[in-house]
Amino acid sequence: MAKNKEPKVKKERFKTLKQIGQTYSITRKTDKALPFIILGTLIGTTVPLVLIAQFAFQSSFSQLITTTLAVSIGLLATVYVFGKRAEKAAYARIEGQPGAAAAVLNTLRKGWFVTPAVAVTRNQDLVHRVIGPVGIVLVGEGSPGRVAQLLESERVKAKRIAGEIPVASIIVGNGEGLVTFKKLNKTIMKMGKKISPAESRELRNRFGASGASALPIPKGAMPKGMRIPRR
User: Fold this and answer.
1) Residue 35 exposure: Cα atoms within 13 Å on the Cβ side
2) All residues at 6 or more sequence positions from 183 whose CB lies less than 8 Å from its CB, including other chains
């Protein structure tokens, strides 16, 4: 049994390393300073801690333990910085593309149901629907003025199906009163729990049965210039 598990563990480790490598390669394309920042973080965190360990302890064993701990802290700090740079680069790549909000929303954890592009205009303004513990959240992207009208129209439709369940609206963007892509998921999750998982599933089924399904769009951010079907 152990022999069967060993190849699987090695395969998972290889997959993880491959994913890290791919993330690094993609991030470096837009973040030229990435290698220097990673190296600087590793050295800048590890070296001072190792030096402190060497001078603070006389025992070789204590020095070994604290040095190992220092290296571990340095690696953790490097991984954290790398993750933040990769996240920033990912948002920069998709921001401004129609469908970018849907790509971000699709990273919400289990228990959230995302339906991209429940409303789309010829100007590539979109509304996405999220169903989860907070109830219903309609997320609009595009020109704020046009999207506000589109959101209101979808809110009225959603209320007919949702009944007393709350329906909230968000417009993504960088202006005043808008929610940035980076803060989109966090903003939704902070709205507080208002319905149970069972109610959330029932609500999803109601929308599915109503025919209020999404228009087909590519998974993730949509390429600029893509033709949008008319409603």
Assistant:
1) 5
2) none
Tell me, yes or no, whether 79 and 106 share the same domain.
no
Alpha carbon distance 166, 158 (integer Å): 10
**pTM beyond cutoff 0.70:** no
The helix/strand/coil state of 104 is helix
Residues 147 and 72 reside in one and the same domain: no
The one-letter amino acid code at 163 reads: G
pLDDT above 70 as % of the chain: 83
d(CA 112, CA 191): 13
Q: What is the helix (H) or strand (E) element at residue 6, kind and residue range?
A: helix 2-30
Taking a C-beta distance cutoff of 8 angstroms, is the pair 128, 139 a contact?
yes
Query: pLDDT tens for residues 25-56?
Result: 878 887 888 889 999 999 999 999 888 878 87
- Domain assignment present for residue 36? The answer is yes
132: containing domain: 100-210
Instruction: Count up the domains in the chain and report the number.
Output: 2
**Which distant-in-sequence residues (6+ apart) come within 8 Å of 110 by Cβ?**
none
Q: Per the domain annotation, does 135 fall within a domain?
A: yes
